[in-house]
Amino acid sequence: MKVLITVKTYPIPSAKYDELVCTAGVREDGGFVRLYPVNFRDLPFSQQYKKYQWIEVQAAKHRGQDARKESYRPNFDTIKLLGEPIPATRNWAERAKYVLRGKSDSIEHLKEQQAHDRTSLGIFKPKKVHDLVYKQASSDWKASFKAALAQARLWEDRKVSKKPPRKVPFKFQYVFECDDPRCKKNHRMMIEDWEVGALYWKLVDRGASPDDAAKSVREKFLRELCADDRDTHFYVGTILAHPKTWVVIGVFWPKIAKAKMPRSDEPLLFN
Hints:
Shape: globular
Number of domains: 1
Strand content: 25-35%
Structural class: alpha+beta
Distance between the termini: 48 Å
Helix content: 10-25%
Radius of gyration: 20 Å
């Protein structure tokens, strides 16, 4: 299949692969695809795809535990990058041509679709983003994750193994409302976007305290990505272990196109 990569979730530890990333994208017809599992950092550089880059990959429909409509298991060896990522020119017009083709009206609409056909990925425009809140979380992975990693390495005799990905010690949530009469105007949705974790650790590595780094992440993802001059949309998806729980897995945030003003020598037409 041919897929335009739109989001990657933050990596989690895996006993089999060291770490796993869930990747989502769209086909040329706007249909969403989830590629999972992917051990992204172990891919050769020539196969490490970027956001808004077309790839070609052989993938099989997930069976058994993951019955979500969009889920496919990729064959890592077949990943092929197709040219450079689509640039953010003309207010992301070329990107929007594909990612907004299957746009939903609201998270209420997506949940309705989910009940009908197991939809588990989508994109919609919130009516208003009220806030981005964060709270402290555990700074280490669950003991069960770490025990599974240790057990796998014991049995498989892994002499060289990466450390698990660093766990972000905060949980971030968007607070928003939808343009839907069913909306109760107080959605709180967890953010699982790779870029949130990447920005947090970039700031910490530059010397910021954990709390200052979390504040800066909030400012970036609220004040810039959701600013009044941005046509903000949320990419969302469900969690396999909690299929009714939806999370924000990415943000589509081009600038709002300004209306072209007529030149002073052009006549003004009124209907």
